[in-house]
Amino acid sequence: MSDLSRFSINQMTVKQLTLPELTESCVRLGIGGVGLWREPVQAHGVEAAAKLVRDAGLTVTSLCRGGFFTAIDPAERARALADNRAAIDESATLGTDTLVLVSGGLPRGSRDLAGARERIADALSELGPYAQERGVRLAIEPLHPMYASDRCVVSTLTQALDLAERFPSSQVGVVVDTYHIWWDDTAPAAVARAGASGRIHAFQLADWTTPLPAGVLNGRGQIGDGSIDMREWRERVAAAGYRGWVEVELFNEGLWARDGAEVLEETAARYAQFVL
Amino acid sequence: MSDLSRFSINQMTVKQLTLPELTESCVRLGIGGVGLWREPVQAHGVEAAAKLVRDAGLTVTSLCRGGFFTAIDPAERARALADNRAAIDESATLGTDTLVLVSGGLPRGSRDLAGARERIADALSELGPYAQERGVRLAIEPLHPMYASDRCVVSTLTQALDLAERFPSSQVGVVVDTYHIWWDDTAPAAVARAGASGRIHAFQLADWTTPLPAGVLNGRGQIGDGSIDMREWRERVAAAGYRGWVEVELFNEGLWARDGAEVLEETAARYAQFVL
Fold first, then answer.
1. What is the ipTM of this complex?
2. Could you tell me what percent of chain B has a pLDDT over 90?
3. CATH architecture entry for A7-209+226-250
4. Strand partners for B139
5. Is B213 touching A (CB cutoff 8 A)?
């Protein structure tokens, strides 16, 4: 039996499973951690979802996602902040200490990356204390540079840390996700820096496979299928002092078309083979 | 009449035009520079192509492309070096001083980015003197990180410079291409560094538009259609001391489906509107 004691499955990897099905499969396979998403949790009911995973003995390793902080329009900004407070509340209800943030892309018609990044800092300064009071840490996820215009102007781990370090580590940290940063030769130093200040709030895995599909959203490869040395990344975050969960988060049309329980079992096996 | 005195059209932008058609259109529109590609030049005949553009009074601002240096297999490496010597010879025949290098991706099954990058340096040390003797400079083009596994393990301008600076600037420099580096907040400092050592060997423009097409190769946006502040980048390379050509290189199925001469005229107009 492989050691799955730190393995967590992100719900999106097997989104064809209902929350009860996911919970049941995790218990059956000896998987102790799940990363959840707001939409399916809300569909099930937040309180009911919290009870379901708690009764099953699962740890909610993260909630995805808050963020989208780059709007200029004041009403739109106010809506984003309110929605993020709700996401923090939901994190607390679910018993997770980590809310993953996808920061947002450029507003329509804007070419001002630096300005967009600065508006993220503004939002964090409002949300950080609110999160801390509820025992939730905000985790800035740098997304691959191919998402810089439309999803996330934070493209490197260094940029994420530059933002996070303006705030206490109890409020704001980062997500280390192999899919987004594997190509970056400055990322290893950034991992060490993040670890030294206690800011690695989540560690997520997905493999890099090509060709990328249109829209480049749903081509994240199963662990072991692509170009990323997973073991090296696990050792890297461990050397930086990270002792938390290792969460596999795949967006992949091919995996979604298959039996969800089978994909979950395969993913756990790949974790044992390529990560441990 | 707009000032097109530094505007160069890369042949790939209007690949539906034959070389004689391209030459004729450039002369008619007052465009003085063309960036050429090896395959269409070879199809026309290298000597004949050189005479055609020379007789038309055009400057060949660059030749694309050499590179693909990351193979491990010795026979494959020898073939790559021979092919790059041929590309250098062709550059000299065409009268251009700049050969653009796309360095190559990971060999099949490899996950060793650092090793691949080191093999590029090995190749440059063999090719640099050969190029210099023929009056040709090798220009390392960092490609967007979304190409790191399958096309180019050099993903940032800083990485390209780290490689180039191991050699004399008369042998090896870099390409600054907005499409590949626009998202990178460390790129402005790298541009200044490249300029200070005389290593900006080419400056290319393409705009960033989404959604990206499948395979992410042919979605480079027409100037002005996307997220990149072109004027800011032109001023940035100028501040770094660059006084050379500004070459527009677009790979775009939509543009290729249109009348080539019309696309050329539109591209020159966009240059005047968004770059000057």
1. 0.96
2. 99
3. Alpha-Beta Barrel (3.20)
4. B100, B173
5. yes
